[in-house]
Design brief:
With 108 residues, the protein is of the alpha+beta class. 41% of the residues lie in helices and 13% in strands. Strand 1 and strand 2 form a beta hairpin. The protein starts with a strand and ends in an 18-residue tail after the last helix. The relative contact order is 0.14.
């Protein structure tokens, strides 16, 4: 983390949401570096502990990544989430080949 041009240790200074977001950013950066040979990115509940503005920013970044990588034959993005608003922000129907919504049917 950088504050007033000085690098600071994030340990003990970040919220849970900031830690989650930093982790996702690092994973996306690694995917960009190695993505030519390995085009799979899986995110499980990526919006946990994020506020709405960071959720929107993450959705926008993922949507842009999909637009850029769309022509890559081995690119796959798997998002597991309960956050329907996040998926709407990502505009999933605009660029998905498959989109599954799975839910539990109560039978008792």
């Amino acid at each position: 983390m950088v504050k007033q041009d000085a690098e600071m240790d994030m340990r003990g200074r970040c919220s849970a949401g900031q830690k989650v977001l930093a982790s996702i950013i690092i994973r996306l950066a690694l995917a960009e570096c190695f993505g030519v040979n390995c085009g799979l990115i899986a995110l499980d509940e990526p919006t946990t502990n994020l506020d709405r503005s960071n959720i929107r920013a993450l959705a926008g970044s993922l949507a842009e990544l999909i637009r850029v990588r769309r022509q890559q034959s081995n690119f796959q993005l798997i998002v597991i989430t309960h956050d329907v608003e996040f998926l709407k922000e990502m505009q999933c129907p605009d660029f998905t080949d498959y989109y599954w919504r799975i839910y539990l049917v109560q039978t008792w």
